[in-house]
Amino acid sequence: MTQPAANCPNCGAKIVFRWSSSVQTVCEYCKSILVRTDVDLKKVSQVADLPPNASPIQIGTEGVYNHQTFVAVGRIIYEYDQGTWNEWHIVLNNGSAWLSDAQDNYVVTFAAPGRKLPKSANVGQRYVWDNQGYQVSTITKAHYRGVEGELPFEYWDKEDVVFIDLMSENGKFATIDYSDEEPALYLGETVEFDDLKLKNLRTFEGWS
Amino acid sequence: MSASGANPPASPQVKSVNCPGCGAALSLRSFSQAVTVVCDHCHSILDTQDPQLKILQQFKKITDEDAPLIPLGTRGKLRGAVYEVIGFQRRTIHVEGIPYSWHEYLLFNPYKGFRYLTEYNGHWNDTAALRSLPTLNNFAGEGTVNYVGERYRHFQTCEAETSYVLGEFPWQVRVGETAEVTDYVSPPRVLSSERSGKEITWSMGEYMSGRDVWKAFSLPNDPPEPIGVYENQPSPFSADTRTIWMIFATFAVVVVVMMIGFASISADEQVFQGDYKFNPYSKAEASFVTDGFELKGRTSDVALSTTTNVDNSWIYLNFALINEDSGQAYDFGREISYYYGHDEDGFWHEGSTDDTAIVPSVPPGHYYLRVEPESDVKAGIISYTITAKRDVPQFSFFGIALLALLAPAALLTWRSINFEHLRWAESDHAPMESSDDDGDDN
Fold it and tell me: What's the mean pLDDT in A167-195?
């Protein structure tokens, strides 16, 4: 299952990729952010201490979505004025997706490139992608707060960026991510904790 | 850090901090989810995102009356998961100048996240944020909304002010903050929208009895008795009303079938008829006996019908149905009167020229009638015909049975309507005859 190993150019620790298409990873030992090149791994940055975070998910957490098993291989932590949230990079049989955990509200989304996206929007505005209507529910200004594990793209040290979250009348969910010059759309749905059948979760003192 | 770097982070622990306002010890129960925490000693609202726990607001505690009914830190089981009470707030609305307050208990589970218990006058709701948007059927906000195939009716829109807070919250709380809260009900559920600024958040509550809350959180003593009817309180009558009408319909069918059955097996056989005249003016003995007749077959009722030509007059007939063999007599009297005329309201009439009397359970045998007529001497000669029939189907019994069945169904329906009336009397759509003035519409 695991992919060819390499060594951290910073500390020499062994770096194992769980997913062959990962572009970026973080050395578990020295917290160097490493980016894959054609030949080797290049250190591009260093993760500062991660903020205290209460996501019950961790790297290696396994679950089930749409009858497919997945494993969490990486995450981005964002910070905004109401705290932090996590975008867990999950790998399924046929690709990767995002399991977002915002105050234990769980959403699974997939990158949906090639759709027409607004430059900005207002709460309540409606959009249709793939014959599904969505309504803007929140507009959040957030910034990168840390990364962990493997990601499908390079992501570190981002300034304040805007996220537009959209809901539908049937549990579908969309996010427009303005991290890059070209906005990126993610489409998916809200999911119940129990339905994800998560294994290898974190434990919380006093809770079993 | 480096030695343990490769290990997963240690289990998050309940954090103890000290209030920068008064130094009291506070515990943070939701690990790092809290955004604000309230010191329950000096009522400072603290910023938990700030390492120094900056004081965001200090509010004056006006009264101690509002101690939470479920103490912070209490754990209970809701929908199969354990939740801990970590925050408490009172929210107040003003209707025609009168403050009404409800309480919200913030519940936390580190895997499932947050839920609420809300309490108003002893009525409880188990509430969670919606994951989908409801469909508004009327964009103005009033009217109805649909959610997961269910229609909710607008109940109330009001400005709710946070008037007291305790514990921790995963969002910014301040005393004095307001939000526009709109409730739509479909008992036992309520959909609530909260608008603050540009954002609208939706939640759904399901009615819970205080007793169930007390059981879920293993609380001592008894929950406060609920007062009045709450907006999404399930009517104790609506299900029963449906059931009782079903039962009534079933019995009505049975009764009708029985009526048809009895009608078809009844002989309805004429056994006697005689025409008579009575002159009240005559001094002669009025009483007489009729010819004999035979009642055959089983013991059955006898219907004795009399048709007369009374015309603004009356006749009183004393009957005796006498068994020739045993001498047993069935005595009864009938008054037949018919009056009519004109007054300022037009034609009127009273009484009838006909009459039927039923003698129940008459055994078979040979019978005759003794008849003793009486009337007003001024009535003139009255002609009348007496007809006797045996085994006549009786429907009045079935009518009484249906009425007896109808009574509880009607009573329950009335109570159900009354319950709904009490529910909606508290809404923005209270019926006009209610005593409170409809001030906010003007």
Answer: 93
Q: Which tens digits make up the pLDDT trace of A26-72? A: 998 888 999 988 778 888 888 877 777 889 999 999 999 999 999 99
Flag whether residue B17 sits within 8 Å of chain A, measured between CB atoms.
no
Average of per-residue pLDDT across B401-411: 86
Residues 125-184 of chain A with CB under 8 A from chain B are 135, 137-138, 167-171
Crossing angle of the two packed helices B238-265 and B396-425, in degrees rounded to 10: 170
The closest of B77, B105, B118 to B217, measured between CA atoms, is B77
Residue B110: list chain A partners with CB under 8 A.
54, 56, 104, 204, 207
Q: Give the closest of A30, A190, A203 to B131, CB-based.
A: A190
Domain boundaries, chain A: 5-46
pLDDT tens for B276-333 read 999 988 888 889 999 999 999 888 889 999 999 999 999 999 999 999 989 899 999 9
3-class DSSP state for residue A186?
strand
Residues 19-48 of A with CB under 8 A from B: 28-31
Mean pLDDT of B349-366: 92
Q: For residues A87 and A54, what is the distance between their CA atoms, to the nearest angstrom?
A: 13
Asked if the Cβ–Cβ distance from B132 to A190 is below 8 Å, we say: yes
Q: CATH second-level architecture of B267-392?
A: Sandwich (2.60)
| Partner A contacted by B12 (CB < 8 A) | yes
B6 and chain A in contact, CB less than 8 A: yes
CA angle (A191, A192, A195) in 5-degree steps = 100
C-alpha A99/C-alpha B332 separation (Å) is 91
Nearest to B31 among A31, A54, A124 (CB): A54
Mean pLDDT of B57-82: 83
Domain ranges of chain B: 15-234, 239-262+397-429, 267-392
